[in-house]
Amino acid sequence: MTEERVRTDEEREGPPAAGTRASSEQFPCRECGAGMRWDPERDALACDFCGATREVEVLADEIVERPLEEAGDAARGLGLELRVVQCRNCGARLALEPPVTSDSCAYCGSTKVMVQEANRNAIRPESLVPLDVGKRQVEEQFKKWLRKLWFRPNELKRAKRFDAVGIYVPFWTFDCLADSQWTAMSGTYYYVPVTQPVMVNGKLQMQTTMQQRVRWKPARGERSDVYDDLHVHASKGRCAELVRELGPFDTSGLVPYRPEYLAGWRAEEYQIDLADGWEAGRREIHEDQRRRCGADVPGDTQRDLRVRTELSDVRWKHVLLPIWSLSYRFRGATYAVLIHGQTGRVVGKAPYSFVKIVAAILAVCVVLALYLALG
After folding, report:
1. 3 state SS for 80-126
2. What 8-state DSSP symbol labels residue 374?
3. N- or C-end of the chain: fewer Cβ atoms within 10 A?
4. CA dihedral sign, ordered 69, 231, 9, 237
5. Which of these, 308, 307, 316, 239, lies nearest to 280 by C-alpha position?
């Protein structure tokens, strides 16, 4: 069977593709004057022209977590000249550095994109986790993921080129104290003998069995919990659903925001603002407190659980967290894949091979027929 070539991001957009070898003219190289980009493998700004590197100064200031009522004091914009591509298919808003352009979405591969002005009034990220996993490692993780998939076309697994794009994804994080009081009916199992008539070998006999009962009594309690860096993804659309599947991020690697980390890469603008982000976080905390209080109820079972939770000392920050995105075409269809920028976890879609599925079904039928014939 002939190998089918996967169409890459670089071929769709034309050189240079941001997130592959694009450089930022806003950070010129001190040696040759060419634009530099953030290099995840060298943890520094790097010049693709002369190979020079320059470390990004890590500010000594602590990362600020602001009280919820102080949103107006936060800095605005990303500190870079940017343009935004809005995808009409998945809803993502990806920021690019001029003169880089894009005629397709880095998330879903759709060509239904519109160039717009960046939101200069958007809250600036307080911190970020720099892209630290290199492109080669990401592509190795992707190919391992493909090899583990069953019932996929062989030509997809033999494809030679897969180009991934690094993206900084927006999140809100929240800290708070949660004080909960709960009441419930606590149930304890006990067993009683019950004698009933039963038919045994055509004869009516009396048989005693132990049946479960529940002894109910009221219970109450309280608990206090601390929430630190509760993540709320600040995007919408299908790309947001895939990001949630990636799992949590480790925010211990956060560093104060510097625009140099974005040089040559893409950053997604948030579409869920701080107020809506906190509403989502508040609901998650209340649901979590209900689960925790439910686990505190003594006994074997429970009913009528009621929880009252008060939240205090709410603080927030806006952060950018790293992922890699891969969208590829195969037999006329586009498939989106995301790779976690810290753990390497891969989530996404891949086509099925109906030939393999039919062959597997036939094989099962043959084995079943042989089993029945021999039995």
Report:
1. CCCEEEEECCCCCEEEECCCCCCCCCCCCCCCCEEEEECCCCCECCC
2. H
3. C
4. negative
5. 316
Q: Name which of 239, 37, 253, 254 is nearest 125 in CA terms.
A: 254
Tokens of 159: 């494809």
Rounded Cα distance between 119 and 77, Å, is 7
Cα(254)–Cα(318) distance, integer angstroms = 11
- H/E stretch holding 283: helix 274-296
The percent helix, strand, coil of the chain (3-state, each to 5) is 25, 40, 35
52 phi, psi to nearest 5 deg = -70, 150
- The pLDDT tens digits for 95-116 are 876 655 566 777 777 777 777 7
Residue 90: name the closest of 240, 205, 190 by CA: 240
Distance between CA atoms of 19 and 38, rounded to whole angstroms?
10
- CA–CA separation, 19 and 323 (whole Å): 11
The token duo for 242 is 């895939």
CA distances from 168 to 155, 324, 360 (A): 32, 9, 41
Q: What is the pTM of this model?
A: 0.79
pLDDT lower than 70: segments of the chain? 1-25, 59-61, 97-103, 117, 149-163, 237-238, 328, 351-360, 375
How far apart, in whole angstroms, are the C-alpha atoms of residue 209 and residue 196?
8
Helices (H), 115-237: 135-148, 154-157
Q: Using CA of residue 117, residue 123, residue 124, residue 127, what is the dihedral sign?
A: negative
